[in-house]
Amino acid sequence: MEQNVRKPSKTELSIEPSMKAHRKQTRSKLIAALSVLLLSSPVASLHAAWYQSTGSAKVINGQIDKARKKAVEEAVKEALLFSGASVTSTQQVTNGLLTQDMFMVRSSGVVNEIETVNESILNGELSITLRADIFAEDRQCFTTGYQKSISVVNFNIQHQEQAQVGQLYQLGQVVSKTIFNKLHSQSTNLNVRSYTPNLILPAVEQPQSQQLKFNEIKEISRQSDSQLVLSGSLTDLSLGKANNQISQWLTGAYGIRFFEMQLSLHDGYSGELLQSFNFQSDAVWDLDPKDKINIHSRQFWLTQYGQMIDNTLDKAINELENIAQCVNSKAYVIDANSTMLRLNLGSENSVNIGDKFKVLHQANFVDQAGHTRPHFIISPYKVVVSQTYANSAVASTEDQSYLANIQIGDILMPVVHN
């Protein structure tokens, strides 16, 4: 579910009337730390996402500053850990924010911006809500063992005229389907759910079509019930300089043919590009350029060019496996009522009874440059899996309390104990 999110003021605070005497002091101390952080923050990255979290602490003996520090620490830690930042980075940012040690904050390399959304004191408990723009370069690899669901989209051929030699016009579809099959049979980190042969998305990002591509990726994800979407493009199938007639007669080779492939791995829930890969190789083309080649035949795949493509695809599978290890596991809420919810991960993703998940509300927004940015609001709800099926599971709160404001399309992330 997408909506425009009002950008809160960096100095927006809401204090209970009984604490008005502390308002000026509250604003100056907290905003001083945040303002220094904002002035020295790096430029937002394509991989950045906003996380909104709330921390709270009891005010004991009127020590508001001490309670505020504990609440800020709780909120920052929760946002950073759910973003996928490493434990070391989380400690650096938290300690740096509380002590205004900007060297420590900057050295974490993960925070672009932090904003105060709200602060309040009610019944002796101080609550503070922060919104952080986080780019976790040093992402931790979660050890939950969940397989991330993925769908593969038909690849395109960027220069159709290059496919003329051998009539390789269907090679994009064959390559994408081969990757799908290899992932299905070999992958240990990915749960391969769908292959989409009738839709082609170019791997190269074009600003004028970014929003369209975001929406297409999210629609593919919804239809295929997949967290990740893999698209690709064959960017070079050209034939190199031809051999002379004597060399051709001796070797049967007509020259070197190139194979270049670009892959794009997207987060299907947000539409965000997670990683792009580029593979380049070449091999002898020992088939008559005038012949129409059956690219589904063993004859083609046993040629030097066919074997080179197959080896390149194996390398691509290894790269995808490595990336998948460090991608945050996410699930969609596919059904919900006041006492339970159903998520779209199940036993095939290694979800077990007793596993715990945190609920996040998704509210992507468009920034001033026209780019869609992921925005997650971390809810107070933690749910425990009580039933599992192949591709889904049922969960409810630990204390069987009511689930309020949980909607279809909300995100669930596993609770990882560090």
TrEMBL record:
<dbReference type="InterPro" id="IPR032388">
    <property type="entry name" value="FlgT_C"/>
</dbReference>
<dbReference type="InterPro" id="IPR032370">
    <property type="entry name" value="FlgT_N"/>
</dbReference>
<feature type="domain" description="Flagellar assembly protein T middle">
    <location>
        <begin position="140"/>
        <end position="294"/>
    </location>
</feature>
<feature type="domain" description="Flagellar assembly protein T C-terminal">
    <location>
        <begin position="342"/>
        <end position="413"/>
    </location>
</feature>
<protein>
    <recommendedName>
        <fullName>Flagellar assembly protein T N-terminal domain-containing protein</fullName>
    </recommendedName>
</protein>
<dbReference type="InterPro" id="IPR038165">
    <property type="entry name" value="FlgT_C_sf"/>
</dbReference>
<dbReference type="InterPro" id="IPR038180">
    <property type="entry name" value="FlgT_N_sf"/>
</dbReference>
<dbReference type="Pfam" id="PF16548">
    <property type="entry name" value="FlgT_N"/>
</dbReference>
<feature type="region of interest" description="Disordered">
    <location>
        <begin position="1"/>
        <end position="21"/>
    </location>
</feature>
<feature type="domain" description="Flagellar assembly protein T N-terminal">
    <location>
        <begin position="49"/>
        <end position="135"/>
    </location>
</feature>
<dbReference type="Pfam" id="PF16539">
    <property type="entry name" value="FlgT_M"/>
</dbReference>
<dbReference type="Pfam" id="PF16538">
    <property type="entry name" value="FlgT_C"/>
</dbReference>
<dbReference type="InterPro" id="IPR032386">
    <property type="entry name" value="FlgT_M"/>
</dbReference>
